[in-house]
Design goal:
The structure is a homodimer.
Chain A: E1 2-7, H1 11-21, E2 26-33, E3 44-46, H2 50-53, E4 59-62, H3 69-78, E5 83-85, H4 93-106, E6 110-112, H5 121-132, E7 136-142, E8 145-146, H6 148-155, E9 162-169, H7 171-178, H8 186-189, E10 190-197, H9 203-211, E11 221-226, H10 229-235, E12 241-249, E13 255-263, H11 266-286, E14 291-293, H12 308-313
Parallel strand pairs in A: 1-2, 1-4, 2-3, 4-5, 5-6, 6-14, 10-11
Antiparallel strand pairs in A: 7-12, 8-9, 9-10, 12-13
Helix pairs in contact in A: 1-11, 3-4
Chain lengths: ~325, ~325
């Protein structure tokens, strides 16, 4: 059994806890947190005490934020144990790989970095699609799903009591991409749909502020729907997301590769990929590999609980 | 530059030839064939002479049939050079892996086996989907596409002059799978659509023979359309195919992973995967790996022409 520990207990950490418990080959060692009281029946340890437990933990899932926690803590932890993180700041991933590579290697550990779905399974499918189809045209669509950043922007408008923003792929752009005319980005490829709870007297002004907000909404086909508090509570408190990567090639005469995710819960799915990568981290490290790796470097069979022979029998 | 040679010059070999020529990091060494006259400007060598060229060939694409050629020739060739094959007899893949593993290892070579799309990219996505989603329900749909075996069965009916059979996924089964109610197979999940050229006097009898043919058509929702020779020539001589792998999980609360291919030409796409795997074969062998591997064992970045650093920068 693989002893898995979790650092951080927000949406991602709680999802990881549920998922580790249902794996046939994993046991939950405990949760490392800055808080001492967590609503869990798992063992809880201080985030400062990882070093004391390192010899009993096979892999630590870093379920902490990409904005400040990963840059501050991840490398220190990778010196102590094998880690899997979901660092998602695309522009800084090369620097993150470098920092984690040095830290993990110095401790004889393996760090799987920037897993999840994007970066993660989407990255993998972009690489696969482009490797297979010559001179590829590639388009990534996000949605249907909640954008946290855009929802925050809505909530900063005066008079908005509750708000959520769904990003939707534009149907015409998806069809064009599948037909070989891809490459759309941003407002060409996506629409924005906002659900707002606010006093009726403010509706007209709020809608005007939203659709004229530069960068966030103004360039997009944006719809605003005002709903009641009850409807918001009933239908708009989840964190669904999803998207697709479409690769086509003129040189390959209209072939299309599409990878699509429909995620009922964004953090649950991110955690699911992270848990599968934990298995690979332990196996690769046991095989002598140290430093940092992305999902692009993991032989896929190492993600599965089954043996390679079992997988090949069902290939 | 990677020196790539091709064994066999049917649909698959010709597609591989075109694709090798457009790769930035490959050169076509030549084509090994049982025939001495081929309609190509590449160098042509006898299939019996691979040993004489082995030190100049980095990898040999085995573009020969799975029924008899691969079982007869593949292991002998894998002793001489790195190989990539598209052996697609699912039930016998474990035996094929074993035979190729022994042969390739004895020659210090690497054999990538059973690549293409199914087995191949579909196998990879079945493993990825099941590794990520706990207690997965998984459904593979084939089509829209030409089934060679079923087209052959049509052509054996008396009076049929030309015939093609398209396999189509049943829309209801696809929707059910995406909604988490997957697991359909065979006639539950697929329809069959036949296009036939025949004398009008034979139409009624031929249609009756088709829809009552056991196993092939009788259990399926089968439609038969009689068309003219001209229409057949204009619209039904290609080899399109495709399909999708859908994975869902109740434990992950309605998450869905879908991998979908729309292939304008089945052999062209199979060759495209084979060519990408050729890159991995050479790199893994240069790194000391010998024996046989499936696509499940290849770190995905080895399939791409770009360096790992370039790929990570675009992750």
């Amino acid at each position: 059994m693989i002893n898995v520990a979790i650092a951080g207990y927000g949406n991602l950490g709680r999802a990881a806890e549920r998922l580790v418990k249902v794996q046939p080959d994993m046991e939950l060692y405990g949760i490392f947190s800055r808080r001492s009281e967590l609503d869990t029946d798992a063992k809880v340890f201080s985030l400062d005490s990882v070093a004391e437990h390192a010899d009993k933990v096979d892999v630590l899932l870093l379920c902490v934020g990409s904005a400040t926690d990963i840059p501050e803590h991840a490398a220190k932890l990778a010196k102590l144990v094998n880690t899997v993180d979901t660092y998602d700041n695309h522009a800084h991933i090369p620097d993150h790989v470098k920092a984690m590579n040095e830290a993990a290697a110095s401790g004889g550990n393996l760090a799987v970095v920037s897993t999840g779905w994007d970066p993660g399974l989407f990255s993998l499918n972009r690489v696969l699609g482009a490797a297979v189809l010559p001179e590829p045209t590639q388009t990534t669509f996000w949605g249907d799903g909640v954008s946290q950043g855009h929802s925050d922007a809505l909530r900063r408008i005066e008079g908005v009591r509750r708000a959520v923003q769904y990003t939707l792929p534009a149907d015409e752009a998806v069809e064009a991409a599948l037909a070989g005319n891809g490459g759309q980005t941003g407002p060409q490829a996506h629409k924005r749909s906002c659900y707002i709870v606010a006093d009726e007297a403010d509706h007209a002004r709020i809608e005007q502020e939203i659709v004229s907000m530069p960068d966030y909404f103004e360039p997009y086909d944006t719809t605003v729907t005002f709903i009641s508090d009850e409807e918001f509570e009933a239908n708009h408190t989840g964190l669904p997301h999803g998207g697709r990567v479409i690769t086509t090639s003129e040189l390959a005469g209209g072939q299309a590769i599409e990878f699509r995710l429909q995620l009922a819960s964004n953090p649950d799915f991110t955690a699911a990929v992270q848990v599968a990568c934990a298995r690979a981290a332990v196996r690769m490290n046991a095989d002598g590999r140290t430093g940092a790796v992305t999902i692009l470097e993991i032989p896929p069979y190492l993600l599965a609980a089954e043996s390679l022979d079992e997988l090949i029998a069902g290939i």
